[in-house]
Amino acid sequence: MTILVTGATGMVGRHVVAELVKTGHRVRALTRTPSAASLPDGVEVVGGDLTDPPSLEPSLNGVEKMYLFPVGRTARELVTVAKRAGVRRIVVLSGALADTDDSEDGYLAVERAVEDSGLEWTHVRPGEFAANWLDWAPSIKEGRVVRRPYGAAVTQPTHEADVAAVAATVLIEDGHAGRTYTLAGPEALTTVAQVHAIGTAIGATVRFEELDPAAARAEWIGNGYPEKFVDWIFTMWAESARDPAPTNQEWAGIVPRLTGRPARTFAQWATDHAAEFL
Ligand SMILES: NC(=O)c1ccc[n+]([C@@H]2O[C@H](COP(=O)([O-])OP(=O)(O)OC[C@H]3O[C@@H](n4cnc5c(N)ncnc54)[C@H](OP(=O)(O)O)[C@@H]3O)[C@@H](O)[C@H]2O)c1
User: Where in this chain does the record put each NAD(P)-binding domain (predicted)?
Assistant: First the structure.
């Protein structure tokens, strides 16, 4: 039985591959550039582009289960190609905010395409990735500082390895068909606390410098971030700084419940990625 992992070279996908290899499964890994994949020995690396579903046909030969990196616009055609090839279970990498994005390229488009296929499906909806803060690496490297608005905003960062552990579990085990698992890390933390945790991991003091939101908004848009995205995320942070949510225990409980292991803390994530901040 072969499991196809799309997005296999990604933050989450690499861990999905590793989990499946560790448990003795036959893994085929999809990437647009096989020569650069650098995946473990024993993994069959194949080329294909999720925006061009027919390009996956050769990769789907003999595949029973599939981890699907979300590409909304072509999801429906891709699922048709997969079903025709004999795939019977698809695990979707989605997102905790799936319900807020109904666009043709959003997570819901992928989820619905898979649900409508009649195949076994499970949606893995992670909250914010701790890895988003790799954005801070340049300023931490250069000046041991993070400059941001809303230092008091609270998020519940999720370790990519935990997202992958849940995805691998539901690929391997039966009993998860038709389920949507929304998950996050074990603790809600302010941005300032997360900056300090990275400082601890690299053995240095990292300062947090609070930026004026209006100035930060103009800077982000100037740096090429879409205005709609900046307004959305700044509004979320502003609300959270004003009224910080406690840890969402339901989301925090998914990793231990499904994998039998505690969810990784942000401190653990920072230690795992310390080299990228040095
Ligand atoms: N950031 C967050 O807070 C957050 C929260 C919830 C959900 N998510 C979801 O998680 C995703 C990121 O996952 P990740 O961190 O594992 O990925 P990632 O590190 O951003 O890597 C992207 C992966 O997708 C593959 N890929 C992208 N476009 C492709 C295409 N057209 N055809 C084939 N492969 C393609 C890439 O493969 P190659 O380049 O090798 O072809 C690579 O393996 C986001 O895109 C989002 O959907 C993110």
Answer: 7-171
User: Average pLDDT for residues 268-272, to the nearest whole number?
Assistant: 98
pLDDT-based confidence at residue 100 (cuts at 50, 70, 90): confident
**How far apart are the CA of 67 and the centre of ligand 1, in A?**
12
Determine the topology of domain 2-126 in CATH. Answer: Rossmann fold (3.40.50)
pLDDT digits 0-9 by tens, 161-183:
999 999 999 999 999 999 999 99
Q: Which of 38, 39, 69 to mutate to test the pocket of ligand 1 (most atoms within 8 A of CB)?
A: 69
What percent of the chain is modeled with pLDDT above 70? 100
In sign, the C-alpha dihedral spanning 192, 198, 204, 209 is negative
Three-state DSSP state, 195: helix
Cβ contacts of 9 within 8 Å, gap of 6 or more: 29, 31, 36, 37, 38, 39
Work out which ligand 1 atom sits closest to the CA atom of 12: 16
Under CATH, which number does the domain 130-156+186-246+264-277 receive? 3.40.50.720
In this structure, are residues 163 and 123 in contact, taking their beta carbons and an 8 Å threshold?
no
**Please, what is the average pLDDT of the chain?**
97
- Rounded distance, CA 234 to CA 237, Å? 5
pLDDT in tens, 202-253: 999 999 999 999 999 999 999 999 999 999 999 999 999 999 999 999 999 9
Evaluate whether 2-126 and 130-156+186-246+264-277 have a shared fold. yes
- Alpha carbon nearest to ligand 1 atom 38, residue: 31
Q: Is the predicted pLDDT of residue 101 greater than 90, yes or no?
A: no
**Domain segments of the chain as ranges:** 2-126, 130-156+186-246+264-277
Q: Which two tokens stand for residue 176?
A: 């998860």
